[in-house]
Amino acid sequence: MYLTPQHILLAGATGLTGEHLLDRLLNEPTVARVLAPSRRPLAEHPHLENPVGELQELLPQLNGPIDTAFCCLGTTLRQAGSQEAFRAVDHDLVVAFAQRARELGARHLLVVSALGADAKSAVFYNRVKGEMEQTLQAQDWPQLTLVRPSLLLGPRNEFRLGERLAAPLARWLPGKYHGIEATVLARALWRLALEEDDGVRVIESDCLRRLGR
């Protein structure tokens, strides 16, 4: 467990999971600095550094040192508008963020993937998530944690009809298919960040719910 002040890099701080994780990080006494680039300005905080703009353009400008990086990036096919645009965010941008985090000295990367991620899947969404995971593993991180939450539950800034309709059912599904509250996922991510376990870990949604209680 880390006892010295940590320097954190966070992508996706304005998303459902990212906003809860940011709040937790800024209230952790062991966190000295959170570097959180975002499209729109975040609320000011003494420990927050918030470059504003498109992440792809901001990446070269980010500065270290960084100890731990969290990636909560993600979109939907409907939001992206095409498979190519979806892949540009959920694969390409995630990979670029991870590479920059490594360049800044980060030794542990935690990434929000998805339930069913599989590079060989016939389902496009799951395949892209699986390919993203494979690419990150090829970066040879000292510590890489891939979390695969099921349907995320909680109020979003944007309306997602599919998730709104699926949420009631997700609350009753068993095991790893049971929906997970974004606040629970954020707590689980922080607890996982505190664990020193070299290599690659894949954490499924049922385990995330237990960790985040």
Automatic annotation (TrEMBL):
Gene3D superfamilies: NAD(P)-binding Rossmann-like Domain. InterPro entries: NAD(P)-bd_dom, NAD(P)-bd_dom_sf. It comes from the Bacteria. Transmembrane segments: none annotated. Pfam families: NAD_binding_10 (PF13460). Residues 12-152 form the NAD(P)-binding domain. This is Uncharacterized conserved protein YbjT, contains NAD(P)-binding and DUF2867 domains. It comes from Pseudomonas borbori.
